[in-house]
Amino acid sequence: MNKQLGTPFYFGGAASCTAAMIVHPLDLTKVRLQNTKGIISTNMFRAMLNIIHNEGFFAIYNGISAAIIRQATYSTVRLGGYEFLKEKLLAREKNPSVLQLLMCSTAAGVGGGICGNPGDIVNVRMQNDGQLPAHLQRHYKHGIDGLIRMAREEGVASLFRGVGPNVNRAVLITSSQCVSYDGFKQVLSGQGLSEGLTLHFSASLLAGLVATTVCSPVDVIKTRMMAATGSEIGQNAFQMTWNMYRTEGILSFFKGWTPSFMRTGPQTVLTFIFLEQFKKWYRSFHSNKMVLRE
Questions:
Q1: Which is nearest to 237 in space by CA: 251, 256, 264, 217?
Q2: Sign of torsion, CA 57 229 246 171?
Q3: DSSP of 56-113, one letter per residue?
Q4: What tens digit of pLDDT does each residue of 2-41 get?
Q5: How far is CA 17 from the centre of its chain?
Q6: Taking Cα atoms as reference points, which of 55, 56, 61 lies closest to residue 23?
Q7: 126, 169, 223, 281: which one has the fewest Cβ atoms less than 10 Å from its Cβ?
Q8: CB 138 within 8 A of CB 129
């Protein structure tokens, strides 16, 4: 029966939107630190306190509307696509290989990266706005306003600025999150952990650690490109990478790793816990309906 049910495509996006509302302040702080030029002299918590002190408490929720738009497009496609392709694969093979799962996650990540790019670039801009000089601030009212203004003022093509690094990151994070989550879940199950919250939490926390480390360089480059101002506008991923390496060194690609993990870790944990719970509720609801019909 569960095999016929499958997983509704939108569950991944719903789980990610729910998680995003909780971890948004951490995501905003991560973006601010990644856009800091030169050597970072503050930690995540001090940076967050500085934002609250200088811009007000609700500044840590700048861009929340764009974040929801991003998750509703990006995560719906990448997580929904991965679950869909994985279920098709499991219908043919009982124990798919890691390579087969990576192929599923790659295809889902490409789709998610492209669909989520407009929401992602507005999200980054809204989060970074308070860090810019007054004459460069954009003051988008909300995510939809940002999308409309970008299309009108900079052209529709501007909504896909940084799409290359974004697709690369989407592939990396979908593969590192989803495939490692499935792998850790299988390993931990073999060590005696039964299906439930403890198993889901442990597997998703480890998957978050893997995802943060794998995605950090691409994430920093993507953020720099999307938030670019002045002479940096128009630089492609290779130019941005070379300029960062030449002026700031190799460690610049791991700027904001700690806040990134502090954000990606909880985001990954909450997303998979909500996703597993949604699946459980869906199966339970469907089972109850079947019993009532009988």
A1: 217
A2: positive
A3: -GGGGGTTHHHHHHHIIIIIHHHHHHHHHHHHHHHHH-SS--HHHHHHHHHHHHHHHH
A4: 445 677 889 999 999 999 888 888 888 877 777 776 655 6
A5: 10
A6: 61
A7: 281
A8: yes
pTM as predicted: 0.74
Q: Which two tokens stand for residue 284?
A: 């339970």
> What would the pLDDT profile of 130-174 be if each residue is shown by its tens digit?
777 888 888 888 889 999 999 999 999 989 988 887 898 899 999
| Dihedral sign computed on CA atoms, order 35, 39, 44, 48 | negative
- DSSP 8-state code for residue 194: P
Is the CB of residue 44 less than 8 Å from the CB of residue 10?
Answer: no
Q: How far is CA 77 from CA 100, 174, 202, 264, in A?
A: 19, 11, 25, 18
Rounded CA separation 228/212 (Å): 23
